Amino acid sequence: TVGILVAFLGYIFYTSGGKIQDIVLSKTGTRYIRSAAIINFAFAAILYFFKELNGIPMSTTFVFCGLLAGRELAISYQHKTRQQKAIVFPMLTSDFMKLMLGLAISIGIAFLAAHFS
């Protein structure tokens, strides 16, 4: 099982981050190191809060996508243009639907694993 994990991680590095990197790069200003550092710091702070200071379990994927979505909304409202808002909401809807699909697949795999074990 460790070999499979290493193989998948190797594939992700080989494809330069894969699909999740495409999602991150589609967001406003994430190509700049300062913006990326701020996102990483906020992500680390949120994860620290949920791991050390709170007993509520939290998916890191949902935290990261929520952080990016909130940042995108804040940037679009700061610009206050209809064109920017018209771009943001379809992008956020698409990201949300991808999250829900991933959640449904995860739940399906968990039910199948419980059923066949």
UniProtKB/TrEMBL annotation:
<keyword id="KW-0812">Transmembrane</keyword>
<keyword id="KW-1133">Transmembrane helix</keyword>
<keyword id="KW-0472">Membrane</keyword>
<feature type="transmembrane region" description="Helical">
    <location>
        <begin position="96"/>
        <end position="116"/>
    </location>
</feature>
<feature type="transmembrane region" description="Helical">
    <location>
        <begin position="32"/>
        <end position="50"/>
    </location>
</feature>
<protein>
    <submittedName>
        <fullName>Uncharacterized protein</fullName>
    </submittedName>
</protein>
